[in-house]
UniProtKB/TrEMBL annotation:
One of its GO terms (cellular component) is plasma membrane. It is found in: Cell membrane. The lineage of its organism: Eukaryota, Viridiplantae, Streptophyta, Embryophyta, Tracheophyta. It comes from the Eukaryota. One of its GO terms (molecular function) is ATP binding. It comes from Trifolium medium. GO terms for biological process: defense response to oomycetes. This is LRR receptor-like kinase. SUPFAM superfamilies: Protein kinase-like (PK-like) (SSF56112). Its main location: membrane. SMART domains: S_TKc. In the C-terminal section; belongs to the protein kinase superfamily. Ser/Thr protein kinase family.
Length: 211
């Protein structure tokens, strides 16, 4: 939802219902993670509210919605993204991810890098959002054993199989995101021509054919 503060500032409002898949723990994680960090390529949290069953997050308003909507959405929401814009979105997202992995203290693994969690401002600058699944990574930790969380199509195989989370899981997800940006195809739709393939398989088969 979109709203306007008393000073005229436009904001985006994320309201979680009782039936929402994001529970109280994920909600509090998102607040803790993003309220303590600032970067040009991370969504800015302005405020939040917890009252009864109501869970509300108030973010800066980003005019061009999500990358998923702009790049992979319906004809009514798709935006013509030229190559300079696509390259800038890749670079900006990489900058935000690098900040989380190297400069945030402690380091943070996002765990759900995907097109719908990359939001675009009026100039199509990308900002990483939705930190509900994020994990803190102290400097002396190389991996964390945890339940698998994230989105199918973006999950690193070693993380999905071994349940050992490292920063490389985000890097893999970012790689899938780049393939989506370059190809204009969704990683979650496994239909390419006459074959039923996921995006990675389709790219790999295309490379083999070109060779």
């Amino acid at each position: 939802m979109q709203g306007v503060l008393r000073d005229g500032t436009q904001v985006a409002i994320k309201s979680l219902s009782v039936e929402s898949k994001q529970g109280t723990h994920e909600f509090m994680t998102e607040i803790d993670m993003i309220s303590n960090i600032q970067h040009p390529n991370l969504v800015k949290l302005i405020g939040f509210c917890i009252e009864g069953n109501h869970r509300i997050l108030v973010y800066e308003f980003l005019e061009n919605n999500s990358l998923a909507s702009s790049l992979l959405g319906s004809k009514s929401t798709c935006v013509r993204l030229d190559w300079p814009k696509r390259a800038a979105i890749c670079c900006g997202t990489a900058s935000g991810l690098s900040f989380l992995h190297e400069d945030a203290q402690p380091n943070i693994v996002h765990r759900d890098i995907k097109a719908s969690n990359i939001l675009l401002d009026e100039n199509f600058n990308p900002k990483i959002g939705d930190f509900g699944l994020a994990k803190l990574f102290p400097d002396n930790v190389t991996h964390v054993s945890t339940r698998v969380a994230g989105t199918m199509g973006y999950l690193a195989p070693e993380y999905a199989l071994l349940r050992q989370l490292t920063k490389k899981a985000d890097v893999y997800s970012f790689g899938i995101l780049m393939l989506e940006i370059i190809s204009g195809k969704s990683s979650s739709k496994a239909a390419f021509g006459d074959n039923i393939l996921v995006l990675v398989e389709w790219v790999y088969s295309s490379i083999l054919v070109s060779e």
